[in-house]
Design a protein that fits this description.
Oligomer: single chain
CATH architecture of the largest domain: 3-Layer(aba) Sandwich
CATH class of the largest domain: Alpha Beta
Number of domains: 2
Shape: globular
Order of helices and strands: HEHEHEHEHEHEHEHEHEHEHEEHH
Structural class: alpha/beta
Largest sheet: 6 strands, parallel
Strand order of the largest sheet: 2-1-3-4-5-11
Strand content: 15-25%
CATH topology of the largest domain: Rossmann fold
Number of strands: 12
Length: about 350
């Protein structure tokens, strides 16, 4: 009898330490319509996080790449399903529409993956002020990502051409995206700090075919170019195809850590890829899990938080090759990030070093 009493007492103690919300249903509204390329990695990382934490994660794809359908689909889903919280991006400047829906249905939302434009920031303000259900924002540090890539590529070019002013061109994303703006700014700053000559930056709308055509044109226009900086791995691989066809000795790299890019680095085609930006949805799920279980992250992390990235290059690719190409995110224990499971954690560590370790 005493053993039974002790047994139930221990169970009671354990349950009092880790008490969960009955069921957590979180919807990730993706601006993409499939599991390919960069967004495929975002989805897989988020799924691994949700599985560890016991979250019922539902990914809603945007059938057509259009801002109107993104908001219409969100409105329909939030009004019909049992939703504990949701994740959304500021797709083509629709942040206010997203946050208005969070207010309409009284559902917490964390914005993820991209930052707001300056105009959006002025209208929306900080989380939990104007929009009470807008509880946080987690996104890549796009300025840092762009700078890391440009700085590394320029330094590599200098090693090959020690007595020459390095000339570079940029292949950017879309004209209206905040991430393009931040990455372009950092490209200019890195070129200035390294005393390199930024010849031209063009926009390819995150499209491989467009990046390929524009790279061909730019290589002909600037015959002495040394570096092509690309705002995504997809565009970097397209630029490399153009470089190979030109027969020029030009180095290039991109952003995203796609398996294709990491394989190209290992094979000596690309020089570098900067990444870690795909993690924001997975980390946002940790914050939502804690929030919904009574561990508000308010005082443990900035409500507008930027994830720092890292550089994978030909010198360190072997260290990270298996992790990135196999995308074995289930090998990561996401519970270690959570304060529900680790109440003594003084802060959230979503750093690049912790991820790869």
């Amino acid at each position: 009898m005493k053993l039974r009493t002790i047994f139930f007492f221990l169970i009671l103690c354990f349950c009092s330490k880790v008490s969960f919300a009955k069921e957590i249903n979180i919807i990730l509204f993706s601006p993409n319509n499939n599991d390919q390329d960069y967004w495929g990695i975002v989805h897989q990382f988020a799924r691994a996080s949700a599985k560890d934490l016991g979250i019922n994660l539902i990914i809603k794809y945007n059938d057509t790449i259009h801002r109107k359908s993104y908001i219409e689909n969100m409105d329909k889903v939030l009004g019909a399903e049992n939703v504990s919280a949701f994740l959304a991006v500021s797709f083509m400047g629709e942040a206010q529409s997203v946050l208005s829906l969070s207010s309409k249905y009284n559902i917490p939302v964390i914005m993820f993956d991209n930052t707001f434009s300056l105009l959006e920031k002025s209208k929306i303000g900080q989380p939990r002020v104007k929009y009470k259900n807008y509880i946080g924002h987690i996104s890549p540090n796009d300025y840092q990502l762009g700078y890391l890539l440009a700085d590394y590529l320029i330094k590599q070019a200098k090693e090959n051409k020690t007595n020459k002013t390095i000339e570079l061109i940029g292949i950017s994303g879309s004209r209206i995206s905040p991430e393009s703006y931040e990455r372009n700014k950092s490209l200019e700053m890195a070129a200035n700090n390294q005393q390199a000559k930024l010849l031209q930056t063009v926009f390819a709308s995150w499209n491989g075919a467009s990046a390929y055509k524009k790279s061909l044109t730019l290589i002909k226009r600037h015959p002495n170019v040394d570096v092509i900086w690309a705002a995504s791995d997809l565009m970097a691989l397209a630029a490399k195809k153009a470089i190979n066809e030109s027969g020029k000795n030009i180095i290039t790299g991109g952003i995203d850590w796609t398996p294709q890019a990491i394989t190209a680095i290992k094979n000596g085609q690309l020089t570098a890829s900067v990444g870690g930006n795909f993690t924001s949805a997975g980390y946002a799920l940790v914050l939502l899990f804690d929030y919904l279980n009574g561990h508000d992250f308010l005082e443990k992390i900035a409500l507008v938080y930027q994830v720092e990235g890292g550089v994978i290059h030909q010198g360190n690719v072997d260290k990270y090759y298996k992790l990135i190409t196999e995308q074995d995110w289930h090998s990561i224990d996401f519970k270690k990030y959570s304060r529900v499971f680790n109440p003594n954690n003084e802060h959230y560590d979503f750093s690049f070093n912790r991820l790869v370790e």
